[in-house]
Specification:
elongated, mainly beta, 14% helix, three-stranded antiparallel sheet, 103 residues
Amino acid sequence: MSIHKCIQCNTIKECYSSLNKINDIVDCWIYICKDCRDDNIKSNIENFNDDTSYTNEIICPHCGYVEDVSWEYADNNDRINCPECDNNFNYNRNIEVTYSTNK
């Protein structure tokens, strides 16, 4: 963490940084203080109620965090810790087999 202006509460204090994608070309660093980050995570946990079955990426069933490198997980079934809300959950890798033929 480093000292920056929090994007949410506009105070200058120690902040977490994250790279936010603005569009396909531009990325932008944003900074958020611990208090605001904790409030956001708590709100995400209270409000998240989406179905996390059969998705393209691993999604935390507690807060909705999307693990965009799910393919890097080695095992087909495991228990992992969410990097966003710090809750544990199980995941299962579902594999669909299809066939194509041609003449």
